[in-house]
Specification:
The longest helix is centred in the middle third of the chain and has 23 residues. Helices cover 50% and strands 12% of the residues. The termini are far apart. Strands 3-2-1-4-5-6-7-8 form an eight-stranded mixed sheet, sandwiched between helices. It is built from 15 helices and eight strands. By secondary structure, the chain is α/β, with parallel strands linked by helices. It has two domains: 168 residues, NAD(P)-binding Rossmann-like Domain (Rossmann fold); 131 residues, N-(1-d-carboxylethyl)-l-norvaline Dehydrogenase, domain 2.
Length: 316
């Protein structure tokens, strides 16, 4: 299959790598560091792992015109402007969103942004780290689309032995699971960074998952989806590993250290977007609200931890 990947960050590079190794024809769009990446074949965000020679690194989307599907591994906050600027290359193509978040400016999910440009849109999400995918380690993700025939064919075309894809029509649930878990991961990172212990992390994960379910169901998602790979599975991985950018970002907040500014932390903008939506809808989401307040600088880390762990007694 002819595949194009737009975005040569960690996830985009890993997707390009795994499909090239699987025998697919792959083009990786990298306009900003095209020369360097072509020379080294080593994406900065994947450590010392080199891209297979079969990956064709390109600097123009014009070379993707024959591709049978396009993976969009662009940060959520940049997705809308990217699509607008490259409309002619994306229009009516099978598009697969790889980003996990909610656009802060519009409140839109990635698929809602892509629906403007194509009738064949899917999202891919679940518990995965780019470094693991690029090494060919076993990974199970969820592929979601509202178009049944398109989804089944796409699942058949892009599933591989160590890259297992389950399908669902619950696009809302899959996207919100992937977006919301980043907020909870930041909260867990704060707790660990502030040396509050694993028990506090477990409490934040559990109560955070309840917030995820409540918010997602209020937007029409199925609870079953949130209990699967793209919700609970992704939450479990992200809140327990220092490979997670959102978790490590939270740790840096918790211990007062500076975080690397060139690293994408999707949970930051998502926290603001979700907190605002929850307030409008009258949903109580204390962990999300606390993370949003902390990121806005309106409260201290110590105050946030104290407020979360000393909330009024109530039924679980």
């Amino acid at each position: 299959m002819k595949i194009s990947v737009a975005g040569a960050g960690a996830f985009g590079s890993s997707i390009a790598s795994v499909y090239a190794k699987g025998g697919h024809s792959v083009k990786l769009y990298s306009p900003t560091n095209f020369k360097e990446l072509n020379a080294t074949r080593t994406p900065k965000k994947l450590g010392h792992i080199k891209l297979p020679k079969e990956v064709d690194i390109i600097s123009s989307l014009k070379k993707t015109e024959e591709s049978e599907c396009v993976f969009l591994a662009v940060p959520t906050q940049n997705l809308a402007i990217f699509c607008e600027n490259n409309n002619s290359f994306l229009k009516d193509r099978p598009l697969i969103a790889c980003c996990k978040g909610i656009d802060q400016a519009t409140g839109l999910r990635p698929s809602e942004i892509l629906n403007k440009y194509s009738s064949r849109v899917a999202v891919i999400s679940g518990p995965s780290f780019a470094i693991d995918i690029s090494k060919g380690m076993p990974t199970a993700l969820v592929l979601a689309s509202t178009k049944s025939d398109f989804l089944k064919q796409l699942q058949y075309d892009i599933s591989m032995q160590n890259f297992r894809l389950y399908r669902t029509s619950d696009v809302v649930g899959v996207e919100l699971g992937g977006a919301l878990k980043n907020i909870i991961a930041i909260a867990c990172g704060v707790a660990i960074g502030a040396k509050q212990g694993d028990s506090a992390r477990a409490a934040l994960m559990t109560r955070g998952f309840s917030e995820m379910v409540a918010f997602a169901k209020a937007h029409g998602a199925k609870e079953k989806t949130l209990s699967g790979l793209s919700g609970l599975g992704d939450l479990s991985l992200t809140c327990n590993s220092e490979k997670s950018r959102n978790f490590v970002f939270g740790m840096s907040l918790g211990c007062g250290k500076t975080f690397h500014k060139n690293t994408t932390v999707e949970g930051v903008a998502t926290a603001f977007a979700v907190s605002q939506k929850a307030e409008i809808m009258g949903l109580e989401m204390p962990i999300t609200s606390a993370v949003s307040a902390l990121l806005a600088g309106s409260v201290s880390t110590e105050a946030i931890i104290h407020s979360l762990l000393s909330r009024p007694p109530k039924e679980e």
